[in-house]
Amino acid sequence: MPANLTYTYTSVTAGQSYQITVSAVSVIGEGPKSNPLIIWAVDVPTAPVLSLTDTSRSSCSVQWTAVNSPLNSLITGYVVYIDDGLDGNFVVGYDGKSNPSKIFTTI
After folding, report:
1. Which of 37, 41, 68, 79 is deepest in the core (most CB within 10 A)?
2. 95 in helix, strand or coil?
3. In angstroms, rounded to a whole number, what is the distance separating the alpha carbons of residues 54 and 106?
4. 20 - beta bridge partners?
5. Which of left, alpha, beta for 31 (phi over 0: left; psi -120 to 50: alpha)?
6. Higher-pLDDT residue of 72, 23
7. Which residues of 68-104 are buried (b: 16+ CB within 10 A; e: fewer)?
8. Contact assessment for residue 52 and residue 61, using Cβ atoms and an 8 Å cutoff
9. Rounded to whole angstroms, how far apart are CA atoms 57 and 40?
């Protein structure tokens, strides 16, 4: 089975599209180019601004600002992470990866 070869191009600009093609070379010469692969270089979203809206003895409510989508990308939702304040790991308190319209939750 032939080996998979890789190449990493690091001079991309977020929001820009690129076409990549490859050809094989032998001692006789260069072969035909592959069909082009079209890719978009996308950025990750910026961080939302989080604010506390209400607290009680057993819950807290937070809201956050919706963020603008990076060029050629979509915001698909938001995830709220919680830490108990004891320097432990954050755990998911709300997973809204498929609900971009929700910008408020009570935990």
Report:
1. 41
2. strand
3. 9
4. 37
5. beta
6. 23
7. eebeeeeeeebebeeeeeeeeeeeeebeeeeeeeeee
8. yes
9. 47
The two tokens of residue 3 are 């080996």
Q: Are the C-beta atoms of residues 56 and 101 closer than 8 Å to each other?
A: no
Distance CA 100, CA 69 (A): 11
Domains of the chain, by residue range, sit at: 50-106
Cα separation values, 35 from 16, 39, 68, Å: 20, 13, 34
Provide the phi-psi class of 74: left if phi over 0, else alpha when psi is between -120 and 50, else beta: beta
**Banded pLDDT at 22 (limits 50, 70, 90):** very high
Q: pTM, whole model, 2 decimals? A: 0.64
The answer to whether 39 and 57 are in contact (CB under 8 A) is no
Residue whose pair of structure tokens reads 């607290």 in the numeric block: 55
Do residues 77 and 102 make contact, with C-beta atoms less than 8 angstroms apart?
A: yes
3-state class (DSSP) for residue 69: coil
Per-residue pLDDT tens for 54-66?
A: 999 999 999 999 9
